[in-house]
Every structure is written in structure tokens, then in C-alpha cells.
Fold:
Amino acid sequence: MKKFTTLLFLGMVMLSVAQNEYEPSPTNPYGSKNPEAPKQLDDFKPMIGLCDCDSERRNPDGTWAKPIPMTWKYSYIMNGMAIQDQTLKADGKHSGSIRQFQKDSLKWYVHYYASATPTPTLGSWEGKKTEKGTIVLYKPQKAPNGTEGFSRLTFYDINDKGYKWIGEWVDKTETVVFPFWKISCTKRKE
Structure:
């Protein structure tokens, strides 16, 4: 009986390790991509880790507010099958997203949450990486005047040294473009 109990315990430990093998840990603080995960998780690979950023939003009068320092952290979650990011801003308004790639639709689904606006349902964007190397995500959203359009989020200039991000409202034809938020990030050397 003692031998069976020992084998059962070891089996449970091994299963637990396998279920958490790619999660963040003290030796690997950002986790790692699970080999079974969609290859598209590599779209965000240059962002994994910490970046020091400047976040700029539009003022109500249309001018740009003073940049706010921000840390943007990306990690693998769900045992390396998805990506989570978290922003920590100097103004105390923090946010994050859970990023999952759906093999069937070949799209990213990004679910956003923020400390300043708790909500019972998370806003979500969908999109993909373009041939130009940008990642573009959309969510239907009306303009303040009621015009149908989208909230478009774009990651661009992505490389091992950092990236840029812009949030824009666009009309359905994407000919009217109104930037409302922009972020510039530099990868932190750790």
C-alpha cells in the first residue's frame, strides 16, 4: 500500500508540473510558449518581458496630454497557450489584456480590463498580424456623433528594442481616422 501511495503521489506531482510547465515562475518570470500553442503567439514574442513606455491620450479639446510614464509587462499564461499584458501607469490608472489566438478563425481575440473602469463584461477586439508586420485589432464602436465605425488598435515598429502602439477611431471605410491614444515603448534590459 505504501508503494502505491508513493507512486500515486509522484504521478500527481508529475501531472501538476506538466500542467504548469510553461507558466511564469521565479526562474522564468514571463513564462514560455507551449510547443502546442498556435505559432501566432510569436506575433507578440518581441514584447514578452518589461517595457518602459510613454502613454499619451487626447484631451477633450483635441490636444495631446502630457505623456505619462508607464511599464508594460507581457507574460505567457494558461500554461503557455495565451498571453497576458499589464500596464502600470504613473497616474495610477492601470490596465491589462488577455490575448488568445483562435486557430479556426485565424484571429487574435483580446479582452481588455482597466482599474479605472471595472465592468461586468470585458471589451474585446479581434484582428491579426498583417503582411507588413503590424498587429491590427478592431472593435465596433460608434463615434460621439453616432457614426458607425471601429476602435482600431495597432502595434507597429515591433522589434527586439521596443514597439509603438496607437488607438484610433476609424469609420467603416477607414478613410476617417481619429487617433485618441498613442504609446511608445522601449524594451527594458534585465
